[in-house]
Design goal:
- This protein has two domains: 261 residues, Glycoside hydrolase/deacetylase (TIM Barrel, Alpha-Beta Barrel), CATH 3.20.20.370; 64 residues, no CATH class.
- The chain is globular, with a radius of gyration of 20 Å.
- It starts with a helix and ends in a 9-residue tail after the last helix.
- α1 packs across α13 and α7 packs parallel to α9.
- 43% of the residues lie in helices and 16% in strands.
- It contains 14 helices and twelve strands.
- β4, α4 and β5 form a beta-alpha-beta unit.
- Is involved in generating a small heat-stable compound (Nod), an acylated oligomer of N-acetylglucosamine, that stimulates mitosis in various plant protoplasts.
- InterPro entries: Glyco_hydro/deAcase_b/a-brl, NODB_dom, Polysacch_Deacetylase.
Length: 352
């Protein structure tokens, strides 16, 4: 099945590239730098054609991207230094900082060797609940449930419905439907129980055979001690903060600092909002992150950094290094800044 949205976005990227618009526009709209967003980095994904393949890039692509950006004058810096550069308006040339969400084990086993090769820092955002098993990588669980079924029974407050998973196209539709149900209809604090009920009612035992794809605490401690690695916070349980009460949202944002200090011996200075899109973070959540004492907080909004972001350090956009767009040319176009207003209704300074 062809993803129409993906095809249109790739067409726009290619038009900007081949018409010469991107390189011509970069001096005017390219901003002062960029925060790159990763998730998984592995040459051997469990499901190469996964609906979640946007979360994974190959180490070889990361290697090419870093080399290309360095060759084009980008300085790769720590997130601390990136914040300082934003504060002074980006003086000193264009810069980039690499970030990675969720603490996937391959960040250590496959991404780190590439980063060491180039001497490139990374900030990894950790959600303790994911590491401890109190929270789930529900997007992977949903896909696993759909992949092992030809039809599912979905029990909701209004009754049971059958979800067709009989063909590859139907499976994609089923994943989208279940994702929407889980994230829009089910309360955040009930998500885990709902996921287990969905699995159990369809004959799947989530406690058996699920490989550990996230780092352990010992591995995170090892990474935290590495000179190229900074550990940031990603809430306690990877919750959609906008769907929580003020007390619960402040708890997720603030108390994770204490937990990470207890686990790692150091309080995190930087924060990433789970999901990071408009329905997951707004002005309220930005205020909570600021109140919690973080130096910076990042969203998943698409955009390059501009000098004006000095006033919005708790609502910083990122450029997603996406598994569906593993092309250095595509990333060059994104870094040119031409896609920033296209993705944000004309806004050049992207916040929330």
């Amino acid at each position: 099945m062809i993803d129409g949205g993906e095809a249109i976005r790739k067409l726009a990227l290619n038009v900007a590239r081949y018409t010469g618009l991107a390189p011509l526009a970069k001096p005017f709209v390219g901003g002062i730098g960029a925060l790159l967003m990763l998730h998984r980095v592995t040459a051997t994904p469990e499901k190469p054609n996964s609906v979640n393949r946007h979360l994974n890039i190959a180490p070889a692509f990361l290697d090419k991207l870093i080399a290309d950006m360095r060759g084009r004058g980008y300085a790769f810096v720590t997130l601390d230094e990136a914040i300082e550069r934003i504060k002074i308006g980006g003086k000193g040339g264009q810069f980039a900082a690499i970030t990675a969400d969720d603490a996937y084990r391959d960040n250590m086993t496959e991404a780190l060797p590439v980063l060491e090769k180039h001497g490139t820092p990374i900030t990894i955002y950790v959600a303790p609940g994911l590491i401890d098993g109190a929270a789930d990588l529900w997007w992977d669980v949903v896909e696993d449930i759909v992949d092992t079924s030809s039809r599912l029974t979905l029990k909701t407050a209004s009754g049971s419905t059958v979800v067709d998973c009989s063909t590859p196209g139907r499976k994609i539709q089923a994943v989208a439907r279940l994702n929407a149900w889980l994230t829009l209809k089910v309360a955040e604090e009930e998500q885990g129980a709902a996921l287990r009920e969905l699995a159990c009612s369809n004959g799947i035992d989530l406690s058996v055979g699920r490989p550990g794809i996230l780092m352990s605490w010992n591995e995170i401690r090892t990474m935290a001690a590495h000179p190229l690695v900074t550990i940031g916070a990603h809430t306690i349980n990877h919750r959609n903060l906008k769907r929580l009460s003020e007390a619960d949202a402040r708890h997720e944002i603030g108390d994770v600092r204490r937990i990470l200090k207890e686990k790692l011996g150091r309080e995190p200075r930087h924060f990433a909002y789970p999901y990071g899109y408009a329905s997951a973070v707004g002005c309220r959540e930005v205020g909570f992150a600021r109140d919690a004492g973080y130096v910076s907080a990042v969203t998943t909004r698409h955009g390059v950094l501009r000098a004006e972001h000095a006033g919005f350090l708790h609502a910083l956009p990122r450029i997603s290094v996406n598994g569906r767009y593993q092309s250095v040319a595509h990333i060059r176009t994104m870094l040119s800044g031409v896609t920033t207003p296209l993705a944000n209704a004309g806004k050049m300074v992207v916040t929330i």
